[in-house]
Design goal:
Blueprint lengths: L5 E4 L2 E17 L6 E15 L2 H7 L10 H12 L6 E5 L3 E6 L27 E11 L3 E12 L15 E12 L5 E11 L9 H4 L7 E10 L5 E10 L10 E9 L7 E10 L6 H17 L9 E12 L2 E12 L9 E2 L2 E2 L47 E3 L8 E3 L37 H5 L2 E13 L2 E5 L16 E5 L4 E13 L11 E4 L2 E12 L3 E2 L5 E13 L36
Antiparallel strand pairs: 1-2, 1-4, 2-3, 3-7, 4-5, 6-7, 8-9, 9-11, 10-11, 12-13, 13-15, 14-15, 16-17, 18-19, 20-23, 21-22, 23-27, 24-25, 25-27, 26-27
Length: 601
């Protein structure tokens, strides 16, 4: 009917709508600069009649007979106050004036087929009903309702679309603070706030907010916080000016060179102490090579080599700890004093190397591209690092949920790359530039659906390869007590009873919440290093389940599998290992083919 207004939400339609309020507010970012979205507040009064179809579609277990008014009223109220439902408002017999859909899955805000109703999303985890007031009940099939709802949309054109936004990013604002200390070293801190539509993990947007490292700086710290509604990424990036950047792959270092004048024997002593540290996955062999190159360049080459250098002491320390992964090289050499007048000497000391920074000549052949002004993250061939060796998988996983059912929408954790190496070819950063490609629509997630539903808390697979040489120590017959031993002879003989034989013993300990762990199904035999492995025994020990504080069961199972191997492994052989049941098989890292397959149906 022309001129009639209808409003539909969650399958419930209000007809003969009287619009009491239709308010559209421009919502700006925290700085009051960027327009983020438009917030619509709608208060409408209308009639709900013949609503059994909506009740049945939402409650399929409803009896086939017409439900009574009490059941219908409960269902209608529940549908109208349930968040994140489909919303549509029409006037004049089908002319749509506002529509909004909840964001679900990993999709961009808008795609190439913009303009369709399905692309008009609520960008604030809505739509969000605010109030449902039944003002009149007419029998069992008609209600007069006053309904209030809040909708947040990005509208950039006359059709209510935002054709230019394909990333889901709504705003990114930051400030920059420079702090200069008494030695004129600068600490530069970027503090910002990125707002997105909230249908994916905001941690995956770190590449959009972390600037490239400035020449002369190193990255001191990065702090990222995601808000509870999974829409805001707050960040703080602190860069510290350094006098001399450590050679890659070191992230911090300390270098001390001492020259001690002639002693009573006419000798000059030189000492050096080099400390190099890096992240948990740093290549220690490379750090040792760098420390050795610096030692040789400063104490063993050049003018020093001509002065009969003698190494008195050299020490290499490899350190590990909770927050320590470093190497330290200390060395002391002695030499006879240089002839008077030799360039670069002071009382026999090699003073020319004092006050001279380490340069690329000192590290030639070890770190060819060393630049004392560039720390890790500042080279052209490096990505913009947004995390350490620990991946971002699991950094954030939230559910937008309702208290009445399992209709939960997950904001999943996802792993991201550390940047694009081809985007920024310059060394000076532009903090206002985007330096990564567009975010992919489908980011990989290494967690299987079964693990998300019933997570494993413990999964340990140990494979022990045991070789029996079949040797026996036998006493030599005919020797009396003390004879042979006191005379220096042997009192026993070691004999080979059979060729060596090997076994593989697999021990599995699994613990899972809410469900029995899925154990591998061991084969009776499998090929092994050109031979064959045959199963000898298989033992499974399920333990009594225990309950958690929130009344969930934890199941624990221990299994042992033993195989006889027809081939004895060699030291250089690559031996099969286990795999993890919580990994999605599409992304699991298979280091070697194994005998077990533990994917769930």
């Amino acid at each position: 009917m022309q001129g009639v207004t209808t409003l539909t939400y969650n399958g419930v339609t209000l007809t003969n709508v009287l619009t009491r309020r239709f308010q559209q507010d421009a919502v700006y970012d925290q700085s009051g600069t960027d327009l983020v979205y438009h917030r619509f507040t709608i208060v409408a009064q209308g009639v709900i009649a013949d609503h059994t179809s909506a009740v049945y579609s939402s409650y399929p277990n409803m009896p086939s007979v017409l439900p009574d008014s009490t059941i219908q009223h409960h269902a209608i109220r529940s549908l109208l106050l349930k968040p994140r439902g489909e919303f549509r408002m029409e006037i004049g017999g089908g002319n749509e004036i506002l529509r909004a859909s909840p964001l679900t899955g990993r999709v961009p805000l808008l795609s190439s087929d913009t303009g369709t109703a399905s692309q008009q999303y609520d960008v604030n985890n809505g739509p969000k009903p605010k109030r449902c007031e039944i003002t009149q009940i007419a029998g069992s099939t008609a209600l007069r309702v006053e309904f209030e709802i809040e909708i947040c949309k990005v509208e950039c054109d006359a059709d209510g679309n935002a054709t230019g936004n394909t990333t889901g990013i709504l705003s990114n604002r930051w400030s920059c603070i420079d702090t200069v200390d008494q030695n004129f070293y600068t600490t530069r801190t970027f503090t910002g706030r990125l707002e997105c539509v909230g249908n994916f993990n905001p941690h995956t947007l770190r590449n959009w907010v972390v600037p490239r490292l400035t020449i002369g700086f190193r990255r001191q710290s990065m702090t990222f916080r995601v808000s509870e509604d999974a829409r805001i990424l707050e960040y703080q990036i602190a860069d510290r000016e350094v006098a001399f950047a450590p050679p890659r792959p070191a992230t911090s270092w300390r270098y001390t060179h001492r020259e001690v004048g002639s002693d009573r024997m006419g000798r000059v002593r030189s000492s050096i102490d080099i400390y190099l540290a890096g992240p948990r996955d740093v290549d220690k062999a490379r750090l040792i090579e760098i420390a050795t190159a610096v030692f040789e360049a400063r104490l063993m080459n050049g003018d020093i080599e001509k002065n009969a250098t003698i190494i008195e002491h050299i020490e290499l320390v490899d350190s590990y700890g909770d927050n320590e992964n470093s190497v330290n090289l200390s060395a002391t050499v002695s030499r006879v004093p240089a002839a008077e007048g030799r360039v670069g000497t002071t009382f026999g000391m090699i003073a020319a190397n004092l006050g001279k920074p380490i340069d690329k000549n000192d590290l030639e052949g070890v770190v060819d591209d060393y630049n004392s002004n560039l720390s890790i993250g500042g080279y052209n061939d490096e990505p913009i690092f947004v995390s350490g060796p620990i991946p971002i998988v699991g950094a954030f996983a939230a559910y937008l949920q309702t208290p009445c059912d399992e209709n939960h929408r997950m904001i999943g954790a996802a792993e991201i790359t550390s940047g694009d190496e081809d985007e920024d070819t310059g060394s000076e950063p532009d903090v206002n530039a985007y330096v990564v490609k567009d975010i992919e629509e489908n980011l990989p997630d290494k967690l299987s659906e079964a693990h998300r539903r019933d997570p494993y808390t413990v999964w340990k697979v140990d494979s022990k390869y045991q070789t029996d040489d079949h040797r026996a120590a036998l006493p030599i017959a005919g020797l009396t007590a003390g004879v042979g031993v006191s005379g220096g002879g042997s009192s026993l003989s070691v004999v080979n009873l059979a060729p060596p034989a090997a076994r593989r013993i697999i021990r599995i300990e699994a613990q899972r919440v809410g469900r029995q762990p899925v154990l591998p199904k061991p084969k009776r035999s499998y090929r092994f290093l050109g031979g064959i492995a045959r199963r000898l025994r298989y033992a499974v020990t399920p333990q009594d389940p225990r309950k958690t504080a929130d009344n969930k069961y934890i199941f624990t199972v221990i299994a042992e599998i033993e195989y006889a191997l027809s081939v004895v492994p060699k030291d250089e052989d690559k031996l099969p290992i286990g795999n993890n049941p919580w990994e999605d098989p599409a992304f699991a890292d298979r280091k070697a083919e194994d005998l077990i397959g533990n994917e769930e149906p």
